[in-house]
């Protein structure tokens, strides 16, 4: 920003005279430039600024401290909300109103004392009218930064009902990966970078879900699967990716960080589109959900962790400290946003509670609760939460500035799993995600809270066997996670089941049948097609592995043989 002399050099003599009166400086007669130089030298003289500060009202000192904390410059619209506007007065009006003697706002008090100035400039991504402190004065004012009032959010009484999600989102991502590994989920569908595949949209995880079975939460889970790169497309079928195995082996805290940053930095996930009370006409709307989330989270991080806080009080504090968290340019009039019930347009700053406050509320009670950043509190028969509490995990997430580096893979939970004679397996959910992912290859999930419960059945072990997990491997895995505490009856059961598996084999095949022997001979003589054929049944029929069928069709078409496809 400019120095004090350049700021004063732009002022008319009337305004220079007014500021000099406040600073008790006698200006020389002559050119305005000489007056500006003399006044600037007097204002930066030793003790001059301190004397002027002593005459400021508490509100003016608070406003000045806030501008100092912002680095010496702040958007005008943000200051207007808290400290009032500055009238634009001509020479006659200035002489009549004498705003330096009778300021109508806190900003006018500072402006006509020559402590702050206005200009059009860029500040932290915002371009427009800003109020700034000249760099000659900014240094001595740094001591005011500590005077910025803390976020004033009122504590709430202990709620009668609490919603605590904790690590449920991570647990349900695990559940999705298990189901995707077990089934054949089509990878076809709309652009996955935004919405995920249509087949994935239809995947029903209930009752395997640990958290809320809410459409928006399920959409967030599907979005996170792609954002975290946990899925891959294998021949048009979704499969867990190699990255998923590394992610499942992370310590719990690092996995929570990865989920939080995937959400926080997602340019296509926008809670504003999901606020139930709002409807947008996209004309004129230009939002950046990353910026809005970042601004909101910065204010939220100033709340004391571990205490129940009134949600309404936080919204008041947000409006006071960062009213432009959603619209940093301060443009409250060009958006086409309607109230869903009444259909009326919500324009101007007067609609802040119905737009910005609605977005902040929705983000807290949906995404931030599901991420485990906050708990929600309900009082009495209230259908909507009245309080929230930043969790220990939430405090750690809010204070993290960048994704954590890759951590070493975890070992199994510090608490060993237990296996009962009834083939029930229990395991602590703490730092055991990868072990439980492996366990669900041959055991059925039943329930969980702080401990997950699984059960092995002949059918579940058989499914694992067909996925390549032999009973000897199962026995070894159980021995490891229980620290060699597998009941003999369980070992005998696994051995007995293993003897039944594999005595017969069923394999999905495709039948290739040609119209005559020359056509089959032509196919067999083709070097690429020949390698895709299976067992010969007759001169005009042979089997083809199902996984080779699509490639064989393409080869046949290249040969000029367009096959008839039938069920």
Structure description:
Strands 4-10-11-8 form a four-stranded antiparallel sheet. α2 (about 15-25) packs parallel to α3, α10 packs across α12 and α21 (about 470-480) runs antiparallel to α22. A hairpin with a 2-residue loop joins β5 (about 230-235) and β6. About 40% of the residues lie in helices and about 15% in strands. It is built from 25 helices and 18 strands. By secondary structure, the chain is an alpha+beta fold. The longest helix has 15 residues, at about 170-180. It folds into five domains: about 5-145, no CATH class; about 165-265, no CATH class; about 270-400, Arc Repressor Mutant, subunit A; about 420-500, no CATH class; about 510-560.
Descriptors for this entry?
25 helices, Arc Repressor Mutant, subunit A, four-stranded antiparallel beta sheet, alpha+beta, 42% helix, 18 strands, 567 residues, 5 domains
Largest sheet: 4 strands, antiparallel
Number of domains: 5
Write down the overall geometry. Answer: elongated
Low-confidence stretches: 190-197
**What structural class is derived from the secondary structure elements?**
alpha+beta
**Helix proportion:** 40-55%
Summarize the structure.
This protein has 567 residues and is an alpha+beta fold. The protein has 25 helices and 18 strands. Residues 190-197 have low confidence and may be disordered.
């Amino acid at each position: 920003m400019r120095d004090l002399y350049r700021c004063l050099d732009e002022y008319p003599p009337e305004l220079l005279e007014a500021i000099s009166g406040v600073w008790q400086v006698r200006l020389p007669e002559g050119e305005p430039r000489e007056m500006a130089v003399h006044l600037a030298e007097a204002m930066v003289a030793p003790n001059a600024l301190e004397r002027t500060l002593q005459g400021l009202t508490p509100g003016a000192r608070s406003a000045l401290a806030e501008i100092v904390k912002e680095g010496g410059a702040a958007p005008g619209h943000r200051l207007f909300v808290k400290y009032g506007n500055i009238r634009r007065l001509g020479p006659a009006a200035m002489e009549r109103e004498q705003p330096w003697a009778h300021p109508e706002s806190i900003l006018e008090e500072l402006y006509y004392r020559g402590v702050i100035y206005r200009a059009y400039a860029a500040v932290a991504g915002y371009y427009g009218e800003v109020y700034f402190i000249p760099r000659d004065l900014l240094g001595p004012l740094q001591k005011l930064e500590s005077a910025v009032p803390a976020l004033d959010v009122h504590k709430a009484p202990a709620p009668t009902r609490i919603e605590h999600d904790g690590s449920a989102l991570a647990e349900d991502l695990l559940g999705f990966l298990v189901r995707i590994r077990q089934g054949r989920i089509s990878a076809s569908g709309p652009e996955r970078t935004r919405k995920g595949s249509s087949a994935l949209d239809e995947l029903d995880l209930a009752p395997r879900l640990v958290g809320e079975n809410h459409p928006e939460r399920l959409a967030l889970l599907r979005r996170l699967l792609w954002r975290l790169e946990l899925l891959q497309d294998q021949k048009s079928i979704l499969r867990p990716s190699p990255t998923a195995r590394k992610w499942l082996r992370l310590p719990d805290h690092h996995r929570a960080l990865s989920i939080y940053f995937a959400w926080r930095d997602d340019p296509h996930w926008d809670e504003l589109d999901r606020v139930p009370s709002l409807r947008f006409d996209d004309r004129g709307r230009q939002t950046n959900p990353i910026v809005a989330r970042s601004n909101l989270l910065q204010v939220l991080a100033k709340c004391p962790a571990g205490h129940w806080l009134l949600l309404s009080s936080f919204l008041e504090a947000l409006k006071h400290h960062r009213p432009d968290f959603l619209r940093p340019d301060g443009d409250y009039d060009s958006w086409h946003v309607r109230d869903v019930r009444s259909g009326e347009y919500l324009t101007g700053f007067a609609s802040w509670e119905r737009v910005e406050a609605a977005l902040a509320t929705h983000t807290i009670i949906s995404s931030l609760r599901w991420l485990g950043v906050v708990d929600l509190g309900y009082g009495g028969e209230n259908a909507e939460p009245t309080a929230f509490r930043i969790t220990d995990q939430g405090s750690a997430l809010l204070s993290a500035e960048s994704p954590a580096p890759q951590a070493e893979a975890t070992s199994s939970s510090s608490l060993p799993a237990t296996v009962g004679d009834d083939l029930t397996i229990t395991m602590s959910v703490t730092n055991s995600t990868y072990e439980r992912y492996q366990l669900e290859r041959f055991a059925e999930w039943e329930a969980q809270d702080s401990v997950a419960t699984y059960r092995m059945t002949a059918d579940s072990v058989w499914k694992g066997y067909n996925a390549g997990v032999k009973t000897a491997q199962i026995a070894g895995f159980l021995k490891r996670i229980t620290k060699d505490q597998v009941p003999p009856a369980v070992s005998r059961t696994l051995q007995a089941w293993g003897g039944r598996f594999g005595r017969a084999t069923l394999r999905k095949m495709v039948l290739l049948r040609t119209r005559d022997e020359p056509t089959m001979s032509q196919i067999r003589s083709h070097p690429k097609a020949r390698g895709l054929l299976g067992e010969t049944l007759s001169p005009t029929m042979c089997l083809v592995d199902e996984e080779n069928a699509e490639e064989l069709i393409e080869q046949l078409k290249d040969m000029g043989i367009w096959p008839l496809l039938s069920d």
